């Protein structure tokens, strides 16, 4: 029995609230069980220096965790004067993932920055940030289209992410912290709505895992991402 009582192939309860801030072009609060992430997409009519005069747009992301998002208070990274390696790795992952679902020619020379702030963490924060970040980006692009700023929709596919792992010797979907902290294998799958893989991050703790177990995790991820994409579609309908 999983600590949450869920079936091995069950996601945590998903709740998505859109347009939760008044200034961002697109915003969403996504709750995956007890993991809550605020995602806000901002549009700027410029691109980073390395993209200028390329005719291409850019999508990037920033990620942060509030001090009491976890069981004990974490020091704000701003007070340390630098971001941790973990934060940098996660926000680069979010940016890469969202760019995979965008036609940057159609976006034009403008940048969308998706800020992902973890309000409460219970495992899977990067996956929730990617899934919610796509919704925030979709809402921001909808405003550009409605205003006639861009003519063609630059979003080519949904992008969502979910964790899977081997907990208690059994492959399970959507790890919460109780499982993640004890899992023998932990993997994050980032995929499109067509089940195309964007990125897979997987590692074993202690014992190795087999090709057969990897296939089972992939099957669980496909199911989970399909359900997350359905939630995305309902949120932006």
TrEMBL record:
It comes from the Bacteria. Phosphorolytic 3'-5' exoribonuclease that plays an important role in tRNA 3'-end maturation. Removes nucleotide residues following the 3'-CCA terminus of tRNAs; can also add nucleotides to the ends of RNA molecules by using nucleoside diphosphates as substrates, but this may not be physiologically important. Probably plays a role in initiation of 16S rRNA degradation (leading to ribosome degradation) during starvation. Homohexameric ring arranged as a trimer of dimers. Its EC number is 2.7.7.56. InterPro entries: ExoRNase_PH_dom1, ExoRNase_PH_dom2, ExoRNase_PH_dom2_sf, PNPase/RNase_PH_dom_sf, Ribosomal_Su5_D2-typ_SF, RNase_PH, RNase_PH_bac-type, RNase_PH_CS. The keyword Chloroplast does not apply. Residues 11-140, 159-224 form the Exoribonuclease phosphorolytic domain. Belongs to the RNase PH family. GO terms for molecular function: 3'-5'-RNA exonuclease activity; tRNA binding; tRNA nucleotidyltransferase activity. This is Ribonuclease PH. The keyword Flavoprotein does not apply. NCBIfam families: RNasePH.
């Amino acid at each position: 029995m999983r600590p949450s009582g869920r079936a091995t192939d069950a996601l945590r309860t998903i709740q998505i609230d859109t347009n939760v801030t008044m200034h961002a072009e697109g915003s969403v609060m996504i709750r995956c069980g007890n993991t809550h992430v605020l995602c806000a997409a901002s549009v700027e009519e410029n691109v980073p220096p390395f993209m200028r005069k390329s005719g291409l747009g850019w999508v990037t992301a920033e990620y942060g965790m509030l001090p009491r998002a976890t069981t004990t208070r974490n020091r704000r990274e701003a007070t340390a004067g630098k971001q941790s390696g973990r934060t940098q790795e996660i926000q680069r992952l979010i940016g890469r993932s969202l760019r995979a679902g965008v036609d940057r020619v159609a976006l034009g020379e403008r940048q969308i920055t998706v800020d992902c702030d973890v309000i409460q963490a219970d495992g899977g924060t990067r996956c929730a940030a990617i899934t919610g970040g796509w919704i925030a980006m979709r809402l921001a692009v909808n405003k550009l289209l409605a205003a006639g700023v861009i003519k063609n929709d630059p979003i080519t596919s949904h992008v969502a992410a979910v964790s899977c792992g081997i907990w208690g010797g059994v492959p399970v979907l959507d790890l919460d912290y109780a499982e993640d902290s004890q899992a023998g294998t932990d993997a994050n799958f980032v995929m499109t709505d067509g089940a195309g893989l964007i990125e897979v991050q997987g590692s074993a703790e202690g014992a190795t895992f087999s090709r057969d177990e990897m296939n089972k995790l992939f099957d669980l991820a496909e199911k989970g991402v399909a359900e997350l994409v359905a939630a995305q579609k309902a949120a932006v309908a």
